[in-house]
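Methods — Computational structure assignment.
A single polypeptide chain was analysed. Its primary sequence is given first, followed by the predicted tertiary structure written as structure tokens.
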Amino acid sequence: MKKVFIIFSFLLIMPLTAQTRRPAFKSGEWLKFRIHYGFLNASYATLNLSTDTIDSIPVYHVVGRGKTTGFASIFFKVDDTYESYFGRNDGKPYRFIRKINEGGYTKDIEIDFYHDEDRAILKDNKNGKEFDIPVHDEVQDLLSASYYLRNRYGLEEFEIGQSLDMDMLFDDDGVYKFKLKFLGKEVIRTKFGKVECLKFRPVVQSGRVFKEKESLTLWVSNDLNKIPVRIKADLAVGSLKADLDGYNGLRNQFKIIMR
């Protein structure tokens, strides 16, 4: 169960609609996911998007929360909060917050991005440390990446087997190299009905959390929203599955196959 919310967050990072199309999201979007660990209904995770300003810059503010519930919380308690402030106009991250408690493993990290100086200041509040990390103009944090890509990339730009590379900063390990491979389309059954999805596979680091480099599979709705619908992951111990359980405030119609 350790690092459940980081695993879930990979569900959100995938190429989506082109910049010239209707925006994929708006303030007020709310998504809820039900996460299963083996046979247990392990936890719920939510994403809530609103608007704000940082140093007079108009930004979106997304808050992601994950928490174990019921029987699973007896064995392993997870209480994670992630926040990202990213530009409403340029999609760049300006502030990232990560506060987690996973079975006693805790982190309290804040990152401020200074794009005009090509640097980010990471504060480790738990250990009283500060890091000055060089970054480039296209770096994203763990949450801003999803929303950035939802408005930047279109399916017509990708072929089956093609991959997208991206740099992310969300921890004191430094800039993380992320790679995502497009697998094609698939219709899956959900609690809302059948949904045509785009299927992806991220290439992740094996060993610490995941079973092997290609142990994650992701599905996102093949409509203008491109919201995450399902994730499956083989972990170092056991397996994890997350399904979209509720939504509100979508920018566009959520397409469900009725027949």
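Note: Residues 11-20, 206-212 have pLDDT under 50 and may be disordered.
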